[in-house]
Amino acid sequence: MICKNIAKIKTSIPKNVCLVAVSKTKPAEDIMTAYNCQHIDFGENKVQELVGKYEALPKDIKWHMIGHLQRNKVKYIAPFVYLIHGVDNLKLLKEINKQAAKNDRIINILLQIKIAKEDTKFGLDTESLNEIIALYKEKSFPNININGLMGMATNTSNQAQISEEFASLHKLYQELKAQFPSFKYLSMGMSGDYPLAIEQGSNMIRVGSAIFGARNYSK
Questions:
Q1: What is the pTM (predicted TM-score) of this model?
Q2: Distance CA 72, CA 19 (A)
Q3: Domain for residue 53, yes or no?
Q4: Gyration radius from the chain CA atoms
Q5: Residue 125 CB neighbours (<10 A)
Q6: pLDDT (tens digit, 0 to 9) for every residue of the chain, 219 residues total?
Q7: Is 195 inside any structural domain?
């Protein structure tokens, strides 16, 4: 069923859209099933779970850290993480740069922008974003490569609002991409809203339950 779900999504989305299979709370066997269908991009939102799966599974898997990342946990994923999606403050950025240098790596990250009308959602406001962009232009983070932006829409049934929020992030992405050739990913859209996100320019979607089925949070 997992392979079938992946194939169904991949055939329904444009070729330029990267599908990140969100494997949080799912066992290594499920990830191996997806991996054996030639899928290698997986997303986790807890550092401990990500590290455990990295150690247990094939080393050519591209691991995406998609959850809220605490500074004191960066060191655990710095040696191997492929892309950190949710960079939402300058202190976190500095810590990633520091740990990347310790591991002799350039770590790819996305800046998380607050587009939702919800207090529970994280993300940079315009002032914080401008500060980071100015520092990045000055080459203040030699061990970081900003690959683009990430955002989460409001959890609402109002499709027009979701589309509007995604469109605003796409506009910002286009503006920044014009300045930075390293910008290549606009990560927006999850199981419930990824078709809308793609319509508004997303080229990276984070899909979990539509691939692996409902999550079991009681574990």
A1: 0.95
A2: 28
A3: yes
A4: 17
A5: 10
A6: 999 999 999 999 999 999 999 999 999 999 999 999 999 999 999 999 999 999 999 999 999 999 999 999 999 999 999 999 999 999 999 999 999 999 999 999 999 999 988 776 789 999 999 999 999 999 999 999 999 999 999 988 999 999 999 999 999 999 999 999 889 999 999 998 999 999 999 999 999 999 998 766 554
A7: yes
